[in-house]
Specification:
Largest sheet: 6 strands, mixed
Strand content: 5-15%
Radius of gyration: 33 Å
Distance between the termini: 85 Å
Number of strands: 11
Structural class: alpha/beta
Number of helices: 17
Helix content: 55-70%
Shape: elongated
């Protein structure tokens, strides 16, 4: 329903338009009546109507002044003026005030109705345009902060893009928090990624409401949907440099309580380190991801700071086990690569490579080949599968390429290996 206010100092006209025109048939509801401009403005502020059908000459505040107030108030209310025969030149000024239209107050009811319907349609079109622009801007803002998290851009591009988007930072200190929904996600229906996206959308909305309704002095927080998680970019002013940890924990606890209250689910939050400048954001994000994935080490905590697990070999081994388990279950996939594995455990490809080199003394691709070759040797010895069938089963649809890799790895061709180890 469209909400409309009728304003006219003539009671007969006011009541006549309200009673004699079938507004409800066109989904228009008369929500208020005013006998002068001042009363009309009070009603507009209170009821926020879609349409204001107003006489152009009224006591205390005329229609033009009323239209100016609507425009200055930032309202998208469409103003349709009612005017007498002698007021046409006066009414034309209304068009410069973004009044939608003006009609004779003594026109037949159908013409008055059509003028209002036309205003409603124009309002719908403008609101759709504004909504598209908001969504587009919101997507660009989310992409800007997603790029910061991913480590994309330099100081010059960050400064340029932030100015283009109308963004600014409140201080020099930056850190990232990651919200984990793992406890909930495992109960969602399999093969229904839209369910997870709906959950993330709901969490993002709750976070946005918290930051809209509660102030955190000296801190700006951006809610970022990135890498199938909801992430928080916290930016502290110079005055909060010494209290960032307590402030960050307070923000995290407030969010956890709100998510429990509104969504009836529990989450955990991993917190990366805080450092100066946007260049620290990508590192903090990596640390926050690791912290939240290692929540099992600190099972009784809802908020895990990076420094609680940062130097733990046990924590690194836990990540590595998730990676190697994934490889063991997916080595047959010919498209298995570093990016896919990194996305599965929600850390960057570079960090996966670092862990492999540090603890396994081998790079990622060589490790995958090693796993595939181990399975191939097992099948050659303990099955009657042909070489091409074995190649396909371990992720190599190109038999010739498989044979080259196998010989490089074992020193024997697949058939030589089978013959030698079956004797």
């Amino acid at each position: 329903m469209y909400k409309m206010i009728i304003a006219d100092d003539d009671e007969w006209i006011r009541e006549g338009m309200r009673r004699n025109i079938p507004w409800e048939e066109e989904h228009i509801q008369v929500v208020g009546m005013a006998e002068d401009g001042r009363e009309a403005w009070d009603l507009v502020q209170q009821l926020r109507p879609d349409i204001l059908l107003s006489d152009i000459r009224m006591p205390y505040m005329d229609g033009l002044k009323l239209a100016e107030s609507v425009k200055a108030g930032g309202l998208d209310t469409k103003v349709v003026f009612l005017t007498g025969y002698d007021d046409f030149s006066y009414a034309k000024q209304a068009l410069h005030l973004q009044a939608f239209d003006y009609i004779l107050k003594y026109e037949d009811n159908e013409k008055v109705m059509q003028a209002v319907i036309k205003a409603c349609k124009q309002l719908d079109e403008e609101r759709r345009t504004v909504e598209k622009e908001k969504k587009s801007h919101g997507l660009m803002v989310n992409q800007f902060f997603s790029d910061l998290i991913a480590g994309v851009g330099n100081e010059e591009t960050i400064d340029r893009d932030s100015r283009l988007l109308g963004l600014s930072f409140c201080g020099p200190l930056f850190g990232v928090a990651v919200i984990s929904t793992d406890r909930v996600a495992r109960f969602l229906k399999p093969n229904r990624p839209e369910d997870l996206e709906l959950l993330l959308f709901s969490i993002k909305n709750v976070c946005a409401e918290v930051f809209k309704n509660q102030g955190f002095p000296g801190c700006q927080v951006q809610v970022i949907h990135y890498n199938h998680r909801i992430n928080l970019l916290l930016n502290f002013s110079a005055q909060r440099m010494d209290t960032w940890r307590a402030d960050a924990e307070h923000i995290a606890r407030t969010l956890i309580a709100a998510i429990v209250q509104y969504l009836k689910i529990t989450v955990k939050i991993g917190m990366g380190s805080f450092g100066e400048g946007p260049g620290h954001i990508a590192l903090s994000y990596e640390e926050a991801l690791i912290a939240v994935q290692l929540k099992g080490i600190l099972a009784d905590q809802d908020i895990i700071f990076n420094d609680q697990v940062k130097h733990s070999n046990h924590s690194h081994q836990a990540i590595l086990k998730k990676i190697t388990d994934y490889i063991a279950g997916n080595f047959h996939n010919e498209n298995l690569d570093l990016k896919e594995v990194a996305e599965t455990v929600h850390i960057t490809p570079s960090y996966v490579s670092t862990l492999f080199k540090k603890y396994n003394d081998v790079n990622f691709s060589d490790y995958v080949i090693r796993v595939r070759m181990a399975k191939a040797t097992e099948l050659l010895v303990h099955s009657d599968l042909k070489a091409y069938e074995i190649a396909e089963s371990v992720g190599y649809p190109n038999t010739q390429y498989f044979s080259v890799l196998f010989k490089k790895h074992t020193g024997l061709s697949p058939m030589e290996y089978r013959q030698q180890h079956r004797q």
